[in-house]
Amino acid sequence: MIDKRKIRLKIKEKPVVKKSIQTDFIRLDSFLKLCDAVQSGGHAKIVIQDGEIKVNNEICTQRGKKLHPGDKVEFENTVYEIV
């Protein structure tokens, strides 16, 4: 017999942290340090190379990726938005 009850899941929204920059762009590794998402440049390098970072919903492995206002970076279930 088929159980017709539905399972309902609540998906927790990821917190969004807005960070402003004073330049036209910022490199991904520098942005992670600016947001205090990582402890050092070496830590940033590791998490980027391991594919733990998403930029605009796509995994990014480029340390020097240029980020501009409007870009969103996701790391450890937190979204960092450049304003």
Describe the protein's architecture and organization.
With 83 residues, the chain is of the alpha+beta class. It has one domain (16-82): RNA-binding S4 domain (Structural Genomics Hypothetical 15.5 Kd Protein In mrcA-pckA Intergenic Region, Chain A, Roll). Helices cover 19% and strands 25% of the residues. The protein contains two helices and seven strands; from the N terminus they run ββααβββββ. The strands form two sheets. Strands 1-7-6-3-4 form a five-stranded mixed sheet, with no helix packed on it. A two-stranded antiparallel ribbon has the order 2-5. The protein is elongated and about 55 Å long. The termini are far apart. The mean pLDDT is 91.
Uncertain segments? none
Q: Could you spell the SSE succession in H and E letters?
A: EEHHEEEEE
- Termini, distance in Å? 54 Å
Q: Could you tell me the number of beta strands?
A: 7
Assign the CATH topology: Structural Genomics Hypothetical 15.5 Kd Protein In mrcA-pckA Intergenic Region, Chain A
Q: In what range is the share of β-strand residues?
A: 25-35%
| CATH class group | Alpha Beta
The number of helical runs is: 2
Number of domains: 1
- The radius of gyration is 16 Å
Give the mean pLDDT: 91
CATH architect. name? Roll
Q: CATH H-level name... which superfamily?
A: RNA-binding S4 domain
Shape: elongated
Helix % is 10-25%
Lateral arrangement of strands in the main beta sheet: 1-7-6-3-4
User: What profile does the largest beta sheet have?
Assistant: 5 strands, mixed
